[in-house]
Design brief:
Layout: H1 18-28, E1 34-37, H2 42-45, H3 50-58, E2 63-66
Parallel strand pairs: 1-2
Helix pairs in contact: 1-3
Length: about 70
């Protein structure tokens, strides 16, 4: 089993189209995963926001959606 001791956090503040900026920064930083938080009521509404849908369609890397805490 491999352990990763990577602990760095980086906050990126940028202006522009949300979809384009997320995908551009994922590529720029050589990310291998995009994690997106879902809004409350996501499960009940059975719908995915437009931004998440577009990122899932256009991303070259896996996208994980994390529901809000109960």
């Amino acid at each position: 089993m491999l352990a990763c001791n990577y602990q760095s956090r980086e906050i990126i503040i940028t202006a522009g189209n949300l979809l384009d900026e997320i995908l551009a920064n994922a590529e720029k930083h050589d990310c291998n995963l995009i994690v997106m938080g879902l809004r409350e009521g996501f499960i009940a509404d059975n719908s995915i926001g437009n931004t998440i849908k577009l990122i899932m369609c256009r991303s070259k890397i896996p996208v994980i959606m994390v529901p809000p805490p109960q």
